[in-house]
From TrEMBL, chain A:
UniProt KW Metal-binding keyword: no
PANTHER family: AMINO-ACID ABC TRANSPORTER PERMEASE PROTEIN YHDX-RELATED (PTHR30614:SF37), MEMBRANE COMPONENT OF AMINO ACID ABC TRANSPORTER (PTHR30614)
Top-level division of the source organism's lineage: Bacteria
InterPro entries: AA_ABC_transptr_permease_3TM, ArtM/GltK/GlnP/TcyL/YhdX-like, MetI-like, MetI-like_sf
Name listed for the protein in its UniProt record: Amino acid ABC transporter permease
Organism: Nocardioides lentus
Record keywords: Amino-acid transport, Cell membrane, Membrane, Transmembrane, Transmembrane helix, Transport
ABC transmembrane type-1 domain: residues covered: 15-220
Automatic annotation (TrEMBL), chain B:
Cleaved signal peptide residues: 1-25
Protein family (similarity comment): Belongs to the bacterial solute-binding protein 3 family.
Name of the protein: Glutamate ABC transporter substrate-binding protein
Residues in Solute-binding protein family 3/N-terminal domain copies: 57-278
Domain of life: Bacteria
Xref: InterPro entries: Bact_solute-bind_prot3 (IPR051455), Solute-binding_3/MltF_N (IPR001638)
PROSITE patterns linked to this entry: PROKAR_LIPOPROTEIN
Coiled coil: none
Keywords per UniProt: Signal, Transport
Length: 229, 292
């Protein structure tokens, strides 16, 4: 116990990075996934095919392989993303390691976001879109004004699962230069071989807290958007 | 369908790249020496040594990714390096031939659990002796003392530990070396294995790699044109032999065996054909800790 409570700031920094990775890649995956879903259900065949291929490629590839590709294979051919390090948020300089982890997580997660959104869109009766077309709305308007608002409700539970998976998936970054929670756990166990079990449990507890926060916000959203049918 | 084909081409290119990363497999045949089992090994009834001698086989955990220390290339049957050589000496003194040793890969993280659960009988895996570890497992030795140094590209400006402040330095996630680098003001970057870390140095995504000098020398010896080891050692790592805490009698046996190997020259010979290949002479064997 004292291993973690003796250096609690290290524990908090670890989970800070976990949350940072989850939030940044979560937002980017949401945006990218939404564009993919729009392309996939949209009327342009090329875009629709391309989005389908993207989903097939990234949903079927283990995240570890995506990480190895971004963090180990790309630098080998000179793509290191180091130019990103000139960008500063306040006093904090964005590191290429963080950026590479975000790229890997976003590429992977947006495939799942796309499919979750598509399931929501499919849940909206086709008559809704037809009616919207009949009053003269174009594809963008149909999606934005009629279909997506209704789809959003159906999307909340699967989307929460996607983000929970993303949060736990950030732990893969531990092996790619990010000192997030899982890396912190390994640092603690290495220094305190005699307190392994306590360290595992406290790290697991940290993940449970973060994931529960996502779960509770999803329940809250569900309640808020609920409509009488 | 053009999109599909481009994606497939991209994926194929990616795969080719990944496999290209595994280029330097296989290892030097000369890095091994023949050890004969002691025929008439005698042990007191009921000790662990007697059990192992009776069974005629032993499981030893070593590293598989540290050239010179413990390394197994993709095509090799057994790991080679200083640690496996020490393992063979220990096994021989238990009356066990090298063929009857089962080598198991241990990584930094699973060495204590493997010993506690009896997954391996001994851990000889660049296993630094620390007080915390001695709380949960037994550690005999040290049989080798090294210190943390830096591995940098040959054209790097870094030539001492003072130069790493503010630089990104990689090592294995959660290792003591990474903690020490952090204490020196470097930005620590953890990777899963040492070889991935070496790749990061070669690709220039980190400025240096740090861990025990012995391990770094092994990598530098593999690519002398691209890499060099710099700086005075800034920590002291004392490699010990891990054994299960249930068999405290192992300690004295291990110490006696190491002592004997110091005297009959087998320790030095083991060093010369492994770590010594990077050009270093065998150092004085370190003084062993008393068994509790």
């Amino acid at each position: 116990m004292e291993a973690i409570f003796g250096s609690f700031d290290v524990y908090l920094t670890g989970f800070g990075l976990t949350i940072g990775l989850a939030v940044v890649s979560g937002v980017l995956s949401l945006v990218f996934g939404l564009l993919l879903a729009a392309a996939r259900v949209g009327p342009v065949p090329v875009l629709s095919k391309a989005a389908a291929v993207y989903v097939t490629l990234f949903r079927n590839t283990p995240l570890l392989v995506v990480f190895i590709f971004i963090a180990i294979a790309l630098p080998r051919i000179g793509i290191t993303f180091q130019s990103i390090e000139v960008i500063a948020v306040g006093d904090y300089n964005v590191s290429a390691f963080f950026f590479r982890a975000v790229v890997a997580l976003t590429l992977y997660t947006s495939a799942f976001v796309c499919e979750a959104i598509r399931s929501g869109i499919n849940a909206v009766p086709v008559g809704q879109a037809e009616a919207a077309r009949a009053i003269g709305l174009d594809f963008g308007q149909v999606m934005r004004l009629v279909v997506l608002p209704q789809a959003a409700r159906a999307v909340v539970p699967p989307m929460a699962s996607v983000f929970i998976a993303l949060t736990k998936n950030t732990s893969i970054a531990a092996a790619f230069g990010i000192a997030e929670a899982a890396a912190t756990m390994r640092r603690f166990t290495n220094d305190n071989a005699d307190q392994r079990i306590e360290i595992f449990l406290l790290i697991a507890l940290g993940y449970i807290v973060v994931v529960e926060a996502i779960a509770f916000s999803s329940y809250a959203l569900e309640r808020r958007w609920k409509v009488a049918r | 369908m053009r999109m599909t084909r481009t994606k497939v081409a991209a994926a194929a290119a990616g795969l080719a790249l990944l496999t290209a990363g595994c280029g330097n497999a296989g290892s030097d045949e000369s890095e091994t020496r023949d050890v004969e089992a002691v025929e008439d090994a005698q042990f007191e009834e009921g000790t662990r040594m007697a059990e192992l001698n009776e069974a005629g086989e032993i499981t030893i955990g070593v590293k598989y990714d540290q050239p010179g220390i413990g390394f197994q290339g993709a095509g090799d049957d057994t790991p080679v390096g200083f640690d496996p050589e020490i393992g063979k000496i220990i096994a021989a003194n238990l009356g066990i031939d090298p063929e009857n040793i089962t080598w198991t890969e241990t990584i930094s993280d699973n060495r204590e659990p493997f010993l506690q659960e009896g997954e391996v009988d001994l851990v000889i895996a660049s296993y630094s002796i620390t007080d915390e570890r001695r709380e949960v497992v037994g550690q005999a030795g040290p049989y080798y003392v090294t210190g943390q140094q830096l591995l940098v590209p040959s054209d790097s400006d870094i030539d001492d530990v003072a130069d790493v402040e503010g630089e990104e330095v990689c090592s294995v996630t959660g290792s003591t070396s990474l903690d020490n680098a952090r204490a020196e003001g470097a930005q620590p970057r953890g990777f899963d294995t040492y070889s991935e870390c070496v790749d990061q140095v070669l690709d220039g995504t980190v400025s240096a790699m740090t861990t025990d000098g012995a391990i770094l020398l092994g990598y530098a010896a593999e690519q002398p044109d691209a890499l060099k080891v710099v700086g005075e050692p800034f920590s002291e790592e004392r490699y010990g032999i891990g054994y299960s805490p249930e068999y405290p009698e192992m300690c004295q046996f291990l110490n006696d065996t190491l002592e004997a190997s110091y005297e009959d020259g087998s320790w030095e010979e083991a060093f010369d054909i492994t770590l010594g290949q990077s050009g270093d002479d065998a150092p004085e064997p370190p003084a062993l800790d008393e068994c509790a």
